[in-house]
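Q: Aldo/keto reductase, please. Structure only.
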Amino acid sequence: MAAIAVPWDSKAATADEQGNGDRDMTSKTPAVPAVALGTWAWGDSGEAGDGYFGSQLTAYGRREVAEKALSNGFTLWDTAVVYGMGRAETALAQALKGYARGEYQLSTKFTPQAAGDGDDPVADMLEQSLDRLGTDYVDMYWIHNPADVARWTPRLIPLLRSGQIKHVGVSNHNLKEIALADQILGKAGFRVEAVQNHYSLLYRSSERAGILDHCREHDVPFFSYMVLEQGALTGRYGPARPLPEGSSRATVYNGVLPQLRALTDRMAAIGADRGAFAADVATAWAIAKGTTPIVGVTKADHIDGLVRARGIELADEEIAELEALADAAGVDTRGFWEHEM
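A: Structure for Aldo/keto reductase:
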């Protein structure tokens, strides 16, 4: 059985606590959970045509999700400024209100494309995130996209030294960009401590490019996002039941749902043998590949699925079969924001 979620290590010593100018991060690889909780959809306004997911979320519903997640050991929440331009961070803070800061971990991002024109856009964006999240530090801070690795990565160093950032990661970076970020941070005694890329049965570019192998070899956790492909791999949707009209994901996925039928049917069958569903199998596959899936949670019963996924052990033959069916579907789900790995 997959391990129960392990809280993120948010108690790594700050530079002041160690009595030196830098932290040697090589021995402080953060502990990671089996599954992290995604809040991309929490940034939707809820208005038709004004959001990626077309989600109808309420403060009460998000609070239910938070309570159920934490009670089941899921404590790491992943968000970003650009998820609704602050709406997701604000909604997450509201959902977690009343919980002690040590009971959960926060992961948010600096997005270069949304940077301001101040003297230090990274520090400015972090400060805005901290304000919305109601905290004075984040457990993980990511460079969201590799718009200019050499320009933005050094800006993380003083934030690590101050303790406002406990750990640093890179998202949507290829091997060359990961290596450059690691080199820049390494000169100050830090390192890239996690990688977060799009990775699912339908999109395995990080695996084929050697990024998963790199992470394993260097003891760097790999976080996989879009493991459910915005719902297309949950088995809930098909030609007769398309994704919600008025959402961007409907435009991206509805046309390929017929091609996914054989894959999602097999996932459903594998799940049924274990008292689970297709979505649980997609998540379990990502865990079996040695990654930490970031799964979007918009309903309390989504947490039940994560509990099931956490307990599923897929046989090597099942993994190979699912990947073969995914390849046969011939679907490319690379996002508009992604470059080739």
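A: Brief note, in case it's useful. The radius of gyration is 19 Å.
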